[in-house]
Amino acid sequence: MTKNLRVKSSEYIDETNRISFKFNGKTYHGFKGDTLASALLSNDVHLVGRSFKYHRPRGIMTSGSEEPNAIVQVNPGTNRTEPNVRATEVEIYEGLEASSQNCWPSVEFDIGGINNFLSPFFPAGFYYKTFMWPASFWEKYEFFIRHSAGLGKSPTSNDPDIYDHRNIHCDVLVIGAGISGILAAKNAAKNNFKTLLVDEKNELGGSTIYENNEFNKIDNKSPSEWLKKEIKELKNIKNLEIKTRTSVAAYHQYNYLLARENLTDHLEVKDKTNKIRQRLLKIRAKKVILATGALERPLIFNNNDRPGIMLSSAVKKYSEFYGVACGNKNLFFTNNDSAYESAMSLYNKGINVEAIIDIREQSESKIVKKVKEAGIKVYWSHTIVDTTGYKRLNSVSIMKLSNDGTSVTGSKISISCDCLGVAGGWTPAVHLYTQSGSKLKFDEEKQIFLPNQNTSKQISVGSCGGDFKIDEIIKNLNQKLKANLNIKETDLDNIKVEIDQENSKRNIWLLPSDKPLGKTKPFVDYQNDATAKDIKLALREGFRSIEHVKRYTTTGMGTDQGKLGNMHALGIIADTAGVKMGELGTTTFRPPYTPLTFGTIVGRNVGKFFDIFRRTPMNDWHVENKAEFENVGQWKRAWYYPINGETMHQAVQRESKAARESAGILDASTLGKIDIQGSDASEFLNRVYTNAWSKLAIGKCRYGLMLNEDGMVYDDGVTTRLGENHYIMTTTTGGAANVLGKLEDYLQTEWPELDVYLTSVTDHYATASLCGPNSKKILKKIIPDLDLSDENFPHMSFKESKIGNIQCRIMRISFTGEHSYEINVQASYGKDLWEKCIEAGKEFNITPYGTETMHLLRAEKGFIIVGQDTDGTMTPIDLQMDWIVSKKKYDFIGKRSLYRSDTMREDRKQLVGLLTDDPNIVLEEGAQIVSELNQSQVEMLGHVTSSYFSPNLKKSIALAVVRGGKDMMGKKLFVPMENKNINVTVANPVFYDEKNERLNA
Amino acid sequence: MFLINCPYCGERDQQEFKAGGEAHIKRPKQPTELSDDEWAEYLFMRKNIKGVQFERWNHTHGCRKWFNMVRDTSNDEIKAIYKMGEKPPA
User: Fold this and answer.
1) Interface predicted TM-score (ipTM) over 0.95
2) Which of A13, A48, A664, B75 has the most CB atoms within 10 Å of its CB?
3) Per the CATH hierarchy, to which homologous superfamily does domain A667-857 belong?
């Protein structure tokens, strides 16, 4: 039978609302308001997990997000399961299930526990040292390492929950709703600053809300009572938004912060459905007030990790806030006064406190006197040298500490106990502060890192700024608020504070034992099982940088990021190496402060919203006619149109033949279109294209090649002169946005004197490309009035016309080598145009073709595709396109680079055609080309860039780039493949209609 | 994530911008007169300073305007922003 350790009702626990939940398959009860940790403790369950390396039994240590041990798998086996969740943060609800991680077959009996006894064989760097040789064995090692490593299990089916993102702009963001945060938010909002107050917990008030030291008073009230009144007043303040269950994960530059707002994790499963589970808040704040508080430090002593050993502040919170006693025989171990407050909290609730072990020689504060009056035994100048109890603490041994704190003397006293509250002082939570880029300074007196140089518009108030006593907190907060927000009066001006003055501390990073260090286990990082021994070993082995020691020992690398033990690791390194903490510095605190789910990070950008896509105005027709699609940039383009179960190859062969024999139609709407106007438009084109543009007559089209300044081909397309100062440029589908950006760059920065205006009109026009020997007849049917004779409308010219009432621009240009027209209409008429063409073309068996056939047809003609046959290292000369490079023009983008010694090398890779000796073999694109076989090492001459089986030529054709290929016409080369060598011959890249006779067919 | 004060639009998130490399590298007026080395100097050589650096930025998802920025690369502090053609601050 489980014990009930619920001691006294708490206002935060609703004892009328009893909740049942399962942990490791067993049913327990708690109340509304409990966390999984407090509910388990109330059932006297301390053992919740096993450690990562040694599989040592571990219990709940803390009451917050810093928890290193009590990490659990929530709702195992369901599609909502989540690993590595801190039991201290899970609010229980009816039906909640959770289980321990990193143990098999169970947390009570874990086979991996054997590692604990083998621990002498697992020192720091064990993996690095052991699995280094023989190198060929790594794959075998890896299998076992991966199997035994890792915490928890990720879900195997789709996440049923909805996630969301929200942008927030505010004047003041206050992080942390403890006493400092509440007072800061209240005064900021009252002074007309739009304020957002966030806290990771579900209740406001931080630790002050259950503060119980009777010697601390604010305006003659206990701090908790006073703060509750303040919290009530928050509701009526305008300009103030409060978000609880909201954890700030990252603090980036320029006061840009990311926070996770938890909306449904505390609800029963039936209430989670169709609600947003978590929301990522993207906050841009004019000023940030950090009120993140402080984390209590443990003490580092032999066997300091047993279930039942907790932070003193956690013991207090469980008693005061949740009404739960963490044990029946409670001990405290401390180096400051905090443990005495915890002890009094238990004492006042009638919970047994056996003794307090204090490494200080004495303390004169009122709370210490009170503890003595209560008859609780205090062992001054004593330290714990060992503990016992495998799955639950059952005793500690203490000895007298030497004056210098490095050894122990006298006889050993054993004290029986089942819970030990450890108080090692307080570490300001400066994680977010340093993430912002601000710098810390070590305070030698307080032995803490404190905010020093702010780089953002921010202040740190309360204990995260180094003020631990309420009088200091309020005084300094008041001063900082006035200076930072530029306000004259605050609520804080007239607050009267009384405090228990004495607060001495004796800091010893690693406490001695009667056993030599090598025989002890003083854990520094609980989750990763890094001990003080490991850190000292790393130093002996020559590691000096704190960042290196961290990685070698894995200290601070768990899911808790070493929130508890990092300071001790630094302290032990500093002491051992004989350097000052300030000189040593800290490891880098990286986001996120607490782990985020992937769902929160991606928000609504899942499934079809993962990436945006663009569709042409004719898209519906393609879908209705069963086209297969391919992605080109963001566009969904019709790839091919299979009929009667055709494969892609069959469909493409049919489409390609039809386009050359009668008529084909392609949706070319995705081509980039840039409208160019201005009195210097011609001069501008002269400068950006390799060829000359000044003499292009109005109504004529010209193909242009655009280079980068380094001489490499960047983009190509046809540009048409619509008027004296008006051109329309087409670009490649994928390059449209970049080309526009590049042109704008030159216009705005290099040639601001040019009178030229660029407008992207890609989405404004729909384009149908009509090609084949019957294209002219089809166009004639659609626009009977237009004179289509070669005299009136020759190849490479343009006509403005009308289809019915619809204005259209027609270019007689060709990417297939056939007689063809590109018809452009306003985008909204695109589908109409397409259907008209199909209807008119019926008698000619007009065949819609997709991008694959387009690629094949242009390859037959040896036309390049920028990005397929080029890769940013090809000059026009390499492409055998010398004809398009003007020799007369004084300058154009990339011209000078064509005369660099490197670009003029004869042995550059050059574009050639390749024919396979066996016309039925189609080469693989990307296949390597060599000139010799059967050598141990062969030079790679180049590779295949485009390859198809041409139905019109009835043979396989390919384009390739080959080193020195220009002079290799007719040469035999080889394409070695996995199981065969393919013999090929270098050929002219123009395979079809070399004389361009079909353009006028 | 920077908050960039576009000289034409005002403060906007960094997402709307694209960095365009070192500023104040003027394209030579007569490239054909230059030696390979001189051209390479213009084409390839860029500074990579830890500290104050002059950069070009483009408000790609906004007004599409290019402008200059003075940024301390060691702490990402934006020290000044000014339009193309304007004199860099001392």
Assistant:
1) yes
2) A664
3) Probable tRNA modification gtpase trme; domain 1 (3.30.1360.120)
